[in-house]
Amino acid sequence: xxxxxxxxxxxxxxxxxxxxxxxxxxxxxxxxxxxxxxxxxxxxxxxxxxxxxxxxxxxxxxxxxxxxxxxxxxxxxxxxxxxxxxxxxxxxxxxxxxxxxxxxxxxxxxxxxxx
Length: 115
Fold this sequence. Notes:
The chain is built from no helices and eleven strands. It is an all-beta fold. It starts with a strand and ends with a strand.
């Protein structure tokens, strides 16, 4: 079992920056950030595999950067040039191969971007 604890959310003005952190209780393979805005489906924002390869949603390319510190079992999401449409609850997701692939989710951290 892997537990994920997110932090770093908050209220920021448009154009500002925030950095989200997600600390895992153990090692993981791929780690991802998803977000869910009110009334919307949860969507993938960014992902990073164990080798550091990254992938981003088109809506955040060039503004968000995902990174990880394997020694700390922590993944980060640096969010720059924030827009009101980035307002959402951000969730960390981890995948771990334990005989079969298992998925773990954090509790979410709220990001609000004011115009």
